[in-house]
Amino acid sequence: MINHQSSLEFLLSRASTDQLVDPVPQGKQLRAILSAGLRAPDHGKMRPWRYTVIQGEYREAFAKVVLKAIEREESHLPEAKKEKRYHRFSTMPMIIALGIHIVPEGKIPVVEQEMAAAAGAMNVLNALHAEGFGGIWVTGAFSTDTELLEMLGLKKPDCLAGFLFVGTPEGSKEDRKRPDIEKYMALWEGKPVSFGANVD
Ligand SMILES: Cc1cc2nc3c(=O)[nH]c(=O)nc-3n(C[C@H](O)[C@H](O)[C@H](O)COP(=O)(O)O)c2cc1C
């Protein structure tokens, strides 16, 4: 039987981290974690999820692809920032590219396809946490680059929701302060609601 109390505590304990080391999920475990992504709500069974796993010796080559995309799309960035991105993509234990296959002309609005992909990414982050791994979801303007997309099996209007950096969290970090739910929820009682979060 599922212990709902501990399942909820588990969800409330997830936090992003980029302090990641080996090991990374492999084989059946990796596939089970990514399968959690495919459990996301998906209006019209669009199945937009396209996960590409980058690891081991291929990280360096992929970091070079990212760097070239940055040169094309974000050439204004300071060299130090470009170098930092290159370093992260070549050294993170595992990278999962979050591809979104888009069907532009159809019954299901594109934003709903994007939301299904985003919901999948969140499920993957929670599944990683459930298996003792950690990660962080990152993006960048470079991720619209056509050649980068092609490397990831994506053809526009397909796009990327970003990347998950994945690994085993190094050490235990104190969680950052989380917002107070009272400011982010309302009980509707027949009149327009207001949110504490909207008040400065
Ligand atoms: C679509 C998306 C893109 C993000 N891109 C970045 C990013 O490029 N760099 C970054 O440091 N955090 C990025 N974040 C935020 C982190 O993934 C993470 O949520 C944040 O560090 C707060 O950590 P938490 O998940 O523990 O609240 C992004 C989040 C989302 C949903």
TrEMBL record:
Q: How is the cofactor bound?
A: Binds 1 FMN per subunit.
The record lists the organism as Swingsia samuiensis
Catalytic EC class: oxidoreductase
The family database entries (PANTHER family) matched by this protein are listed as: NAD(P)H NITROREDUCTASE YDJA-RELATED
Q: Which cofactor does it need?
A: FMN
InterPro entries reported for this sequence: NAD(P)H_nitroreductase, Nitroreductase, Nitroreductase-like, YdjA-like
Q: Which residues bind FMN?
A: 14-16, 39, 43, 137-139
What is this enzyme's EC?
1.-.-.-
Q: Where is the Nitroreductase domain?
A: 23-167
Please give one Gene Ontology molecular function term for this protein: oxidoreductase activity
Any idea what this protein is called?
Putative NAD(P)H nitroreductase
The record's section on Gene3D superfamilies has: NADH Oxidase (3.40.109.10)
Q: Report the SUPFAM superfamilies cross-referenced here.
A: FMN-dependent nitroreductase-like
Q: Which family does it belong to?
A: Belongs to the nitroreductase family.
Record bears the keyword ATP-binding = no
Alphabetical UniProt keywords = Flavoprotein, FMN, NAD, NADP, Oxidoreductase
